[in-house]
């Protein structure tokens, strides 16, 4: 069988109603699959005004707004009408992108139909609780995730470091890699725009420390702001540029009163914003890959990041940036201060990062997942079942 024989039923808790790195990757995957001649059907919650136009056809799944985070929706199990649609579509593989009620029901339904199910891992859900004072429930969440992933034929991690963690956590023993790509037409050093920086009152020679992403606590906003406070206490010349928006917007602005908040950016505007920074600071430990890290590298920026899944597979310490143990405020501040004070070091690390980013092309990484699909279909046809 080749790719034209694939019929994929894709289940996601958020395919396109709120833009994030995970659903942008899923939409790029579906575009690639359709372009290669595969058949794809998406099952996901929908809203009247989604954040991005969907690739492929979506069957709407009932959902409700998550309390405290109403921009996100929690999908319910697959309704009867959708199950009828799935049976008519006749998939030969199920792809589940989120371990929610919809995902659990999709694995159960795949088993009932005798079809293989795979899961892609997009974030470290078990770590979220610690940012809301509920770290004690992390082992419980991990156990629930293990139960879900072990029922799949295979799981796919976006980085080698995440794959190793999943094996260590015993989530599944059939772990493949589906990494992420980069659009080099959008993210490259030529997008740097000093006039755009000047519009925010940023001097040309001012070292700019960038943050890119949704403004939510699980992105490490507390660590980011504490490290910046250290720089200010030391008298290190710098400016913070924040690109993104989210529920913690007001909190972050109060913690960083001197920062420039450029709001949400996308496409070429995002590429310009990233390239117009001088370094990226990514203290988060929740990512499984770190799209913003790769985008910054492609734009020629050094990256200061936490030693965590995702960034640890992208950043080469003391070559393309610095990797610092999670939460070590003083050491983060030391790394940022060094790049602020040494423009030659910024330039050298940025060039190395830009070169390292060249191996991440979207078609190439999506084909790796297609190869994984076909391997799992062959294994199921040969009688191999998930444990």
UniProtKB/TrEMBL annotation:
Q: Which GO terms describe its molecular function?
A: glycosyltransferase activity
Top-rank taxon of the source lineage equals Bacteria
Question: Which Pfam families is this protein grouped with?
Answer: Glyco_trans_1_4, Glyco_transf_4
Q: Which UniProt keywords apply?
A: Transferase
Indicate the segments forming the Glycosyltransferase subfamily 4-like N-terminal domain, all copies: 20-184
Q: Does the keyword Transferase apply?
A: yes
Q: Which InterPro entries match?
A: Glyco_trans_4-like_N (IPR028098), Glycosyltransferase_grp1 (IPR050194)
Q: What is this protein called?
A: Glycosyl transferase family 1
UniProt source species: Allosphingosinicella deserti
């Amino acid at each position: 069988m080749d790719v034209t024989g694939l019929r994929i039923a894709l289940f996601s808790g958020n395919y396109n109603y709120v833009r994030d790195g995970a659903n942008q990757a899923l939409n790029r995957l579906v575009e690639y699959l359709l372009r290669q001649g595969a058949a794809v059907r998406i099952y996901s919650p929908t809203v009247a005004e989604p954040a991005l136009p969907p690739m492929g056809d979506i069957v709407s799944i009932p959902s409700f707004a998550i309390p405290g985070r109403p921009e996100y929706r929690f999908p319910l199990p697959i309704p009867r009408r959708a199950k009828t649609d799935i049976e008519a579509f006749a998939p030969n593989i199920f792809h589940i992108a989120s371990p929610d009620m919809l995902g659990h029901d999709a694995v159960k339904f795949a088993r009932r139909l005798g079809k293989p199910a795979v899961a892609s891992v997009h974030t470290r859900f078990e770590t979220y609780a610690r940012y809301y004072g509920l770290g004690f429930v992390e082992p419980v969440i991990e156990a629930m995730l293990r139960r879900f992933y072990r029922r799949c034929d295979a799981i796919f991690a976006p980085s080698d470091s995440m794959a190793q963690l999943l094996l260590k956590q015993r989530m599944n023993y059939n772990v493949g890699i589906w990494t992420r790509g980069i659009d080099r037409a959008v993210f490259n050093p030529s997008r740097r725009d000093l006039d755009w920086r000047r519009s925010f009152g940023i001097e040309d020679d001012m070292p700019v420390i960038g943050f890119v992403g949704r403004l939510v606590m699980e992105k490490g906003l507390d660590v980011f702001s504490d490290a910046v406070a250290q720089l200010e206490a030391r008298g290190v010349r710098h400016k913070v540029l924040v690109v993104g928006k989210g529920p913690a917007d007001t909190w972050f602005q109060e913690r960083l009163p001197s920062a420039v908040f450029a709001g949400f950016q996308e496409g070429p505007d995002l590429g310009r914003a990233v390239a117009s920074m001088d370094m990226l600071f990514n203290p988060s430990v929740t990512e499984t890959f770190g799209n913003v890290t790769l985008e910054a590298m492609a734009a020629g920026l050094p990256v200061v990041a936490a030693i965590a899944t995702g960034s640890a597979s992208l950043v080469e310490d003391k070559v393309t940036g610095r990797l610092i143990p999670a939460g070590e405020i003083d050491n983060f501040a030391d790394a940022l201060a060094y790049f602020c004070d040494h423009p030659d070091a910024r330039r050298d690390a940025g060039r190395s990062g830009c070169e390292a980013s060249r191996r991440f092309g979207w078609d190439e990484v999506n084909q790796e997942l297609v190869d994984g699909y076909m391997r799992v279909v062959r294994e199921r046809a040969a009688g191999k079942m998930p444990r």
